[in-house]
Amino acid sequence: MSGVHPLVSLRLVNGSTGDPALLVDYPGRDDALLFDVGENGSLDDATLADLGAVFISHHHVDHFIGFDRVVRANLDRDKALSVYGPEGTIRKVYDKIKSYEYPFFPFQKLVIKVHDVLPGVMRSALLECTRRFPEPTIEAREWPGPVVHDTADLSVEATLVDHTTPCLAFALVEKPVVFPDPERLAQGPIRPGPWVSEALELIRRGAPSDAKIRIGAKLVALEELRATYFTESACSRIAYVTDTAWSQSARPSLLRLAHEATRLYCDAFYADAQRKSAEKHRHMTATQAAEFAREAGVSELVLIHFAARYKGHFEALVAEARAVFPNSSAEIPAGAVNKSRPRANRS
Description:
Order of helices and strands: EEEHEHHEHEEEEEEEHHEEHEEHEHHEHE
CATH superfamily of the largest domain: Ribonuclease Z/Hydroxyacylglutathione hydrolase-like
Strand order of the largest sheet: 1-2-3-4-5-6-7-8
Number of helices: 11
Shape: globular
Largest sheet: 8 strands, mixed
Radius of gyration: 22 Å
C-alpha cells in the first residue's frame, strides 16, 4: 500500500462481510494493534498475545464479543495491555474479566490499562492480575484530543461519532521511522550482521553523522551506512470508521480524522436505496462512505461492515461506491456473489 511502512501488516480480520476488526502488526515487535474485538476466531493465541493496544469503537456484540479471547491469550504474560473505548469501557471490561475464575499463578503479571474516552475527558483505570483484579480506581484527566495512544513510532487519534450508543472512530498515524532496507542489505557490499542493529539504534537515538561503527576490521561512517542500507518510512494515516451516520454533527470531526488518509476503512452497512434505514440506525450507505472518502481526500477506500441482507450482492455495494470514488474496494469471500434478487427492504 503506497505510503505505508513496507514492513507493516494490515489485516481485515473478517473481511468486509463479517464483524469489523482490523489488525495492524509490525512483525518482530510485540506491539500489534487491534481495532474492534468482535468475532476473532481466525486470530491465534500467539497473534493476540503480541497486542500492545486494543481500540474498541463501541460495545455492540459484533464489536466486543471477542475481548475474552484477548484476555485469555495475554493472561500469562508479564506485560501491560492498553485498551481504549467510549464511555463505559472500564466497567464493561472489568465485568468481563470478573465473570471468570482464575488460578492466579505468580507468573501471571498482566496489567490492563483501560481508558474511557469522553468529550474533553479521559478516564483511566488499572486492572492488575497480581492483585487479583480488585475493583478499579478510576482517575479522570482533561483530554483535549485527538491523540489517545502515543509511542515512538506511531500515534492513534480518536473522535466521537454519531451512533445509537457512544462510539468512537480511530486513525493510526505513523511517525517517520528509519528501518533497514532488505533489498539494499542483500545487494550491498557489506554483509548484514550485528552492525545493522547497532547502526539502527544509533540512528534512532540521533547520533552525530560523523559517528563510526566497527564492522570487522574497518570503521565505517554511520552516515554512509544510513544512506546505503537504510530508508525512512512516510507518515501514513490509516482511518478506521464504523457504525456512524454521515450526519452534519459527525462530518467535521470525521473529515479531520481521515484527512488525506492513505487508506480509509469505512462502514458501508447499507446501499443508498436504504438511506432511511441508515439514518434510523445511524450507519452509512456505500454512497455516503464514498462521499466521505472524496471529501476527506483519501487515497484508498475499503468498505467494511456490509449488512447480511446483501449476501450474494456485496459487489453491488462496491460498484455503488466506485461511482462516486473510483478507488474503492472491499474484501469479499469467494463464492459470496450470486445472481439472485436481494431480499426485501428491511433494517
